[in-house]
Amino acid sequence: MSTFVEYLMPTRISDVPENCEWKQAYVAAVLEKNRKRVAGLIRDAKAKLSSRLDELTGGSFAHDEIEAIHDAYYLLQALQSSLSYRDDLQN
Questions:
Q1: Distance (Å, rounded) from C-alpha 22 to C-alpha 15?
Q2: Distances (CA, A) of 38 to 10, 25, 55, 61, 67
Q3: Can you state the percent helix, strand and coil of the chain, rounding each to 5?
Q4: CA distance 31 to 88
Q5: Is the backbone of residue 58 left (phi > 0), alpha (psi -120 to 50) or beta?
Q6: Which pLDDT score is estimated for 7?
Q7: Is the pLDDT of residue 60 over 70?
Q8: Beta bridge partners of residue 34, listed in sequence order
Q9: What is the pLDDT of residue 6?
Q10: Is the pLDDT of residue 1 over 60?
């Protein structure tokens, strides 16, 4: 049985090292339960994703990480879109 975190951590994202700054920001946003903080954490994670993507652009060596960044970005978009409908977040 998959856990919630595994659901939001597709294989390409989970394969990225834990000390990667954008992955830490992504996980923090996904796991945040405080409604007042989650939007800011999503913005922070997206900024880190964008920054890392800029660093990797043009290099063919980081295809897996680029795909993981795209996955994370789309999942953050879905999370952000769902915020107004979620009743599991604390105020």
A1: 13
A2: 20, 11, 26, 33, 24
A3: 75, 0, 25
A4: 12
A5: left
A6: 54
A7: no
A8: 90
A9: 52
A10: no
Are 22 and 49 in contact, with CB atoms under 8 Å apart? yes
Are 68 and 12 in contact by the 8 Å Cβ rule? The answer is yes
Q: Which amino acid is at 38?
A: V
Pairwise CA distance, residues 53 & 67, whole Å: 10
Q: What is the pTM of this model?
A: 0.82
User: Which residues contact residue 43 at a Cβ distance below 8 angstroms, ignoring those fewer than 6 apart?
Assistant: none
Tokens of 55: 């660093």
* d(C-alpha 13, C-alpha 17), whole Å: 9
24 with 73: CB under 8 angstroms? Answer: no
> Do residues 57 and 2 make contact, with C-beta atoms less than 8 angstroms apart?
no
Q: What is the pLDDT of residues 5-52, one digit of tens each?
A: 555 566 788 888 888 999 999 999 999 998 889 999 999 999 999 999
